[in-house]
């Protein structure tokens, strides 16, 4: 865990860098998640104060969007597309086999903290489905062999 | 030796980055000087990674390329196992009318010189010599309608913003392309970002707006990177500046933010909740100020309209659907990709002749047109011509022109259930028909799956309520895939009943 002063200082830097923007909250949250891997609970009051919002408003925004995590993810994040075009190419079966191989369901992390499995609704790879994103890297025509890429 | 290797997401997802590295390494090993240009995709996704080698005769294509095919690129090209011939001469390319996508796949996306050499900035230069009203009239006369799905006339929207009072106005580009089977926005931003920038700058001139935002979904990392780089290049070259400048903003995984009012809330840093209309965003949009919200393809079609004139663009199409439409042929299809063509082809021509039928080789069962909120069309409706009114007349919509092809192994009850489930996951929660109706819809379809056919009138009634009572298209259009599945494929709903008995 980061020392709380280190965290507070880093968030203060991020806030300073974004306060000139119109509608700065989403860019701020993206930057905080980029820095820490999630949105630490302690960030909420700090953001609220800087933007003159209530803590509830900031929490409401964090919890509304699928991208923002309130807990750290596993070492790898495997996102599988569940949308229609990928379904027509067998995405549901691929997802079932990957869930079985990892022993987890959607939004869960393996007990060893290795992989977090998440659904995604469209990566724009609809003519080469099923599609996946492995730690930010795009994969077309994916099958269960992708599990090997998140083995360590 | 000059080689083009796409940076397009689909090409990258199929290995283009490794191919590019291997070409550089192979060139170095052979002492051959190689210039690798990372271009957009030509749209032939089944041939990706599609590598092009520049020769005296033109650009020769090779694909789908694997690492083992790389060394042969340095030998006799005509004998290469993946040789396709001149890319421009391929039937897929020759059959198209590429107006909006004219440069995608052709140029280096981040070279402004390349952009200029291929007709870029001509539209903006012409717009600078015109009055606001003249630019608006030109776009109105072209017949361009919003390509995001709603089909609202772009020129009328611009006129409202242009004539609205306000010391600060905005141009917001909706690049939250969340519909399954759609990737035209992504391909345009990755392959020809300056076209979008030019279109937004023209919109700024027409409306008196000095600031623009492109709201790109976070699922599009390549498009975000290319657009951010392109904005810097455009700013350094003076294309963007005090008169009109823009920022790239990144979404956070909420499908509903593709709806224009929730997009504006998201851009303002709020929950992406839908706003009731009126007030229209054209009058009270971003930060309560007059705002144009247009889709990527709408804005990217403006430069060619300004460069070649409204009449040139309007000449293409049928009925009230003027110009060209980038079809995105996806799902279980043999030849999937992007195909820009005038409105008017029939659905059957698109799926069978251009798309080549299914990838699995099995018969086509249904095609969902217009993304997750679009209707499933059975083969018996394949004579429907591709146009806004024509699809509306068949209880469907063209949406953002994405087509998901499904073969005969598809269970339409499950697809209807998924539509409701997706709506439940992505509902912003503001209006009751969408928030509660979607969850009740899943439960009702589960009753059908268990063999309780008495739930059919309830599902129909629920769909009618959602359709007429929802604030936006998410709740309002989810009934399209559900009701079309039920109407056109009653056997799938009845078969479930027999199985249960």
Brief characterization of the structure:
The complex is a heterodimer of chains A (152) and B (501). Chain A has 152 residues and is an alpha+beta fold.
Helical amount of chain B: 40-55%
* Backbone CA Rg of chain B: 23 Å
**Main sheet of chain A: which strands, in order across?**
2-1-3-4
Strand content of chain A: 5-15%
Low-confidence runs of chain A: none
Order of helices and strands of chain A: HHHHEHHEEE
CATH topology name of the largest domain in chain B: Rossmann fold
The pLDDT mean of chain A sits at 96
Q: Tally the beta strands of chain A.
A: 4
CATH architecture of the largest domain in chain B: 3-Layer(aba) Sandwich
The CATH homologous superfamily of the largest domain in chain A is termed: Glutaredoxin
Structural class of chain B: alpha/beta
CATH topology of the largest domain in chain A: the name is: Glutaredoxin
Put simply, the count of helices of chain B is 21
Radius of gyration of chain A over all CA atoms, rounded: 18 Å
Oligomer state of the chains in this structure: heterodimer
Q: Kindly report how far apart the N and C termini of chain A lie.
A: 22 Å
> What does the largest sheet of chain A look like?
4 strands, mixed
Number of strands of chain B: 16
Low-confidence stretches of chain B: none
